[in-house]
Specification:
Blueprint (H helix, E strand, L loop, with lengths): L14 H14 L37 H34 L10 H37 L1 H11 L13
Helix pairs in contact: 2-3
Length: 171
Amino acid sequence: MAAQNSNGTRDNKFTNVGAAAGGFVGGVASGFVPPINVTVNNSKNGVPAARQHTESLLPAPEFTSPAQIRDYCNTLRAAAVALSFEVAMGAEILKAVLATVPDPEGRMGGSKVRAFKVARKLQRSADELRNAAKLAAATYAAFTQEYEGELNAHRARARRPQQPRMSWGQQ
């Protein structure tokens, strides 16, 4: 059951994502253009160029501190949630476009059935992206649970000693 705010309406934590998806649908009205990534490896000396991760969605997997583990898991979760919305929207658009293709056998509703079968695979990938987001959050939760002793010992050492307070009564 969703919480209600002071106006008596339900809270919607995905309001901004819905607005972004609405903008995506509006852009599709003029035509659907899938994103294309081009990778060029320059190998003038015969040795293949190293692949750089400047456009990666995730930070480098350097897990040398709890903060880096938390950052990696949070970034993965956020990226997976955002991608799941985009893929789900793509599945709906694909289903709508394919439903307009006439059935070759002329069956009633045959084009919609065929479109549903194809788009279902894309919808399942959106579902798996949502599961990836959940598992990324669960990974950090498992880390904090399994390494609680080490984390708490470090936190206790990291506390600053109390500064002596000035006593105005002694002059």
